[in-house]
Records
---
Amino acid sequence: MKASAKLLIVGALAVAVVAAVALKNYNKNNQAGAGDSPRAAVQSAAASDAPSIPATAPPAPTPGARLPKFLDLGADKCIPCKMMAPLLEELRHEYAGRLHVEFIDVWKNPDAGQRYGIQMIPTQIFYDAEGRERARHVGFIGKEDILAKFRELGVNLEKK
């Protein structure tokens, strides 16, 4: 048998094995439910825009004053999520009374991950003061990028 034919067969087998393992993990994670497996949930810390906003995402609750809301869905043990924690605290303190900041751990509360249609963590959801979802972001996002996104959406967070 020629060397090129052997190489082609070995390559095809390698691709088949990788595909089988990926399919097995995909099926196992889907049967276990969203948020059950940290390995499946943390895909990347790189920032990217989510392709679509699911119609099933609930509106943001607006207790008391109607404020814009920044919702971060992640997990306490996810590395990019841990990087977000101090930024969330800064936003809570610096924009108190002007922005509602919330974090939901989807590993401790997998129903929230399903309810909000979360596929990867961290995922951030931007709401306007009326509780309408305006944008989503997947991956780590810096404080200045969060503020820039609210400005882009026409949400004024500056002191009045």
---
Amino acid sequence: RLGWLTATSRVALKIALATEVMTWPLSCASQGIFLALVRSWGDAGLDRHLREVQLLYSRRRDLVHQAALRLLSDVAEWSAPTAGMFFWIRAKACGARGVDAVDLIDDLLAAGVAILPGCCFASEHGELSASSPCAAFRVSFTLIDTAAKADLAMERIALVLRRNADSGCERGAVGKALASSASGDVEAKRRQVAKLEASLRLLREQIEKAES
């Protein structure tokens, strides 16, 4: 993510200090490349590029949304995103216990789908805390460039949700059924998820310090 603003030096300094603890900027090399492109394109060229990017990702979003309508409606709820690059999917309850997306991580990784559970975005001051069960999870659609890929992704998510429902939402119940020779890749994805969750916790702490 990259952007810029026009402001007085005093305001710009305050924003710069805040972003140092609230966001991770792009590398200096990436920022330099983008600056060179903007200078070369001009306003008209940048606007044209942004419209092309918007069209690209809106088409990929639509592929996933249409696949979800066909394959996921009986086990989950969602809304087609109007901004951003992620779907926010909420698993429908199965049994009295309900669904916690954290319990789905291993099973979905075994099926080849990486998610970020909703608890990672919870506020300790809101209705949902980071330790509360949350049936929602986030998945990206940016790499889905064909209808076949969209169908495969939604089929895998639907399979995990259905099998978890059949097993009473027991943690890891589907992972055993879907385990394959790709266990090394699954372990790597688990580590990536764990690192990301740790980063989110650190970010929350930094934001709280900046606000105090």
